[in-house]
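debug: dumping io for the single-chain case to check the tokenizer round-trip. Nothing else runs in this session.
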Amino acid sequence: MKVAFCSSEVFPYAKTGGLGDVSAALPEDLAKAGVEVKVFMPFHKGIEPQEMHDGFGITKQGSIEVFFIKNDQYFLRDSIYVGEDGNDYPDSLERFSFYSKEVLKVLKKVNFCPDVIHSNDWQTALVNVYLKTLYKDDTFFKNTKCLLTIHNFAYQGLSVKEKFPLLGISDKFFDKEYFEFRGKVNLLKGGIVFSDIVTTVSPTYAKQIQTPEFGCGLERTLRKKGKNLIGILNAIDYTIWNPATDDFIYKKYSPDTLESKAINKTNLQRQLGLGEDKDTLFIGMVSRLAEQKGIDILSQAIDKIVSKCQLVILGVGEPRYHRILEEKAAKFKDSFSLALKFDEALAHKIYAGVDVFLLPSRFEPCGLSQMISYKYATLPLANHTGGLVDTVVDVSDGGGGFLFNNYNSSDLLSAVEEAQEVFSNKSKWQAILEKVTKFNFSWEVAAAKYIEVYKQLMN
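debug: decoded output
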């Protein structure tokens, strides 16, 4: 089986979030399962391929080849998606239209005829569109099927309607059945319509995005996919996220040496300038600081949380939340530490050093943090939405986390109080930690499900 895997970001070459991690780990596990995978991404600034060809570079990474589509005008920029003003680049449509056409040209150049093209999010959705329009009569691709994975439905690739001709396809497709969306061009919508199968990153999110509350205006388009809309739970890479082998943390530990987690806690408290106290509930959050991630309700609850617990937040995001959180951090120096940056080493230290990991998201396609926190014997505290429904069960129901069901600060505070109560019972807390470290969210499991879908497509 041959798969062309298309993504706008792939770790370690480029990453802004979970998509970069997924696009590195999933192809690797597909290859381990015997799939022949080639990965296609833009040639972003800072990438140094092992070999260069006309219009693209290649790097061999284990059994996978990663192809970098070159266009310095479009991709040699300091940021992947946004300009200095914090807004999407105004030429996003042109950039990813170019990339998508080039992917299909390069596949022919290197004579790699995929059984399946697997595209991800709006940036690469046009690969599937061009397969079904510009290349519909091309014998090279006559048996190629295509799949689109939606990682975050809130981002759809919108452009003004005047740009539609730049896509290079028939004007008839600027229609509400295809690309037209409230008078604009919607690249994700076009990708959904033209893909044979659409997947998203958790079973619950696949259901939720078919409703007006979560469908972002495309719920009707999604419902028309019927059984060809599937939720496959994301996973994490245990070669990166494992406290037994993690070089970033203060002291390594495993399910058999959980007592060493306490050393990580006191060291993190010391590094952050918080009181070294193993009996205080220590809560952590590593996140984009945006409304989607629940920063609005968390801001309302912080005063009460840090009056009884310690809190550390790492991340960057919307300036308004930076300001609110900075004011709180200045007010509660002894119990709240804020780091407005991206810091991989500190992220690992937080997973290892805190007792509870916070995920108060308004909506969450999948979420990887809860899976990582389990591995580090840290219990997630989450809103009951999206992929968090599929991965977090409340301790009161025999699970390994804390849930709140209504998106507001008072329900969030109630969940924190529940966590404090369980934390005060040391033997009960220890038993839960021992249980959650055995949970398995490996890519091996997810890759097997994708292979099932590929086979379904081929048949």
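debug: round-trip ok. The CA atoms of residues 316 and 340 lie 5 Å apart.
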